[in-house]
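Lecture 7 notes: from sequence to structure.

We start with a single chain of 432 residues. Read the sequence below before looking at the structure.
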Amino acid sequence: MKSFKPILTEHIHQKDCHTLSFYKSVGGYRALEKVLKMNPENVIQEVKESDLRGRGGAGFSTGVKWGFIPKDTNKPTYLINNADESEPGTFKDRLLMDKAPHQMLEGMIISSYAIGCHKSFIYIRGEFYKEYKMLEKAIAEAVGNNILGKNILGSNYNLDVVIHRGAGAYICGEETGLIESLEGKRGWPRTKPPFPAIEGYLQCPTIVNNVETLSCIPHIMNYGADWFKSIGPEKGPGPRLFCISGCVNNPGVYEEPMGVSLKELIFERAGGIRDGKQLKAVFPGGSSSAILTADEALDVKMDFEDLVAKKSMLGSAGVIVMDETVDMVQACLNIARFYAHESCGQCTPCREGTAWLVKMLTRLVNGGGKPKDIDMLFEITDNIGGLIDFSKGSFGKTICPFGEAVAWPVRSFVEKFKDEFLEYLPQETVVA
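Now the structure, written as tokens:
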């Protein structure tokens, strides 16, 4: 691990790293030149063989996803870059858009070419105004140098990229909710199937990938699938951007191979726990992942398989660190409040269940809790998230995974720190 050289963030500390001239000076757009001479199916196959899995949360195979686009469709095909990045504890995509926008754009153009797309969208979070302006400049540079637009680099391939600013809704990080929003409608997730690759934007075949995923594409096409697979574990290889925040000395974004130990990330990369405190708990994949105790966190690798074995998930790789001073009941209430606020309200279990979680946790914190409330918290999370079997996936009761995103963290808080929840219960007074 220590010999690893950053790939996605290699140049982000250099002056003018966001400009086209700088990007081309370090080999930028060479992969595009190569790809435009290839058969699109061969591009898809190369990405499929690389075993690149989505960096947005679900971790689905990128090449397999591209392969779902119908071969015989007479409809236009679309690519959407999910730059909404709304998961608490996650801020890597924002960094890539700010410091390496052309790397992402090159990935978008290659991906669009592979799936036969001629109009692509960047759905960016509305709060990311600086990054929005940066992308505007990058797109203008690309158009001015025949890297976007008509007859790209003399290849007869045409592509337009459009930026769409969202309004800061967490639910629009879900791909079908994002598509609904892009169409000008309320960001309500769709029932699947049909999946977006069959019926997505305007009921046309659509691929949704996130910023980090697309930023990996130029490197795969430059160096090959075997090179990519040589980085990290066999299942889900490649570089990964880990966002570390919370009770650490050096919070930030760290690029490491997939499979790096969580212990190494916290104590070597992020400088350990601040003020000499002890580690208490960690969210390994953003606030929607199940929380890990200190013992679990010190014995886990940051890859898809190992975290599932610990009954959590890698998700967006947003590592939120909590030390011994953190009140886990208060932390649980904060998480519940966030998800209750961000619920789109479409599904009854989520709409009603998140509100009840907040009510019950608030009552507990205010000293009005009852012993049965602890069991009720389990019951509510089951009603929202359904049956969760980490070996087989989840079987939720909501249209999108938002239900599981609520159930996993809240349930794990109560399971692993039950004593702290019991301490909030009023103590019976014995009268002599």
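The chain has three domains: 20-229, 239-323, 328-423. Keep this in mind for problem set 3.
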